[in-house]
Structures are given as structure tokens and as C-alpha cells.
Amino acid sequence: MSTSTQTTTVGVQGMTCGHCVSSVDEELRALTGVTAVDVDLVTGGTSTVTITSTEPLSDEAVAGAIDEAGYTIAPPRSLI
């Protein structure tokens, strides 16, 4: 039996250092099914956060975890 994974990518504003990355990582990993969090830190800009999970994550759950860490999700971009 194979386990499929889901990938969710969001932009996060306000992160400036490794402590910021750790806070976001900790809150997101607390969500059910999250197996990995990868943060591409952009100091003073929008950092890209990629979340790997064993089940789909709701936008509300992701936004709540990022808010709990003290940061904000960047406004969504238009789909091409």
C-alpha cells in the first residue's frame, strides 16, 4: 500500500531570520498529516513555504498555523 503525499505552497510575509523559520516550521508541523516543511527565507520580502502532508490541508488550517507563529500569508496571485 503506497502513501500519497500532498504539497501545499504559500507565501509568508514578515519572516527575517532562522528563528522565524523555526516558529513557522513548528506550527505547521503541528497540523495533522504534515510530514515536512521547507522554507525559502526572503528577508524583508515574501518567503516561500512548501508543506508536504499525507492529506489535503485546508487554507484555514495553514493560515491559522502561520498566524499563530506571528506571520501573515501573502495575498494570493492570479493563476496563469
Describe this structure in a few short sentences.
With 80 residues, the protein is of the alpha+beta class.
What does this structure look like?
- It contains two helices and four strands, in the order βαββαβ.
- It has a four-stranded antiparallel sheet, with helices on one face.
- Helix 1 crosses helix 2.
Cα-atom Rg, whole angstroms?
12 Å
N-to-C terminal Cα separation, in Å? Answer: 35 Å
Largest sheet report: 4 strands, antiparallel
Question: How much of the sequence is in beta strands?
Answer: 25-35%
How many E strands? 4
Q: Could you give the order of strands across the largest sheet? A: 2-3-1-4
Number of helices: 2
Helix-strand category: alpha+beta
Q: How do the helices and strands follow one another from N- to C-terminus?
A: EHEEHE
Give helix % range: 25-40%
Average pLDDT over all residues: 90
Weakly predicted, low-confidence segments: none
- Shape descriptor reads globular
State the main characteristics.
80 residues, alpha+beta, 4-stranded antiparallel beta sheet, 4 strands, 2 helices
List the helices and strands and how they pair.
Blueprint: E1 6-13, H1 18-29, E2 34-40, E3 46-53, H2 59-69, E4 72-73
Antiparallel strand pairs: 1-3, 1-4, 2-3
Helix pairs in contact: 1-2
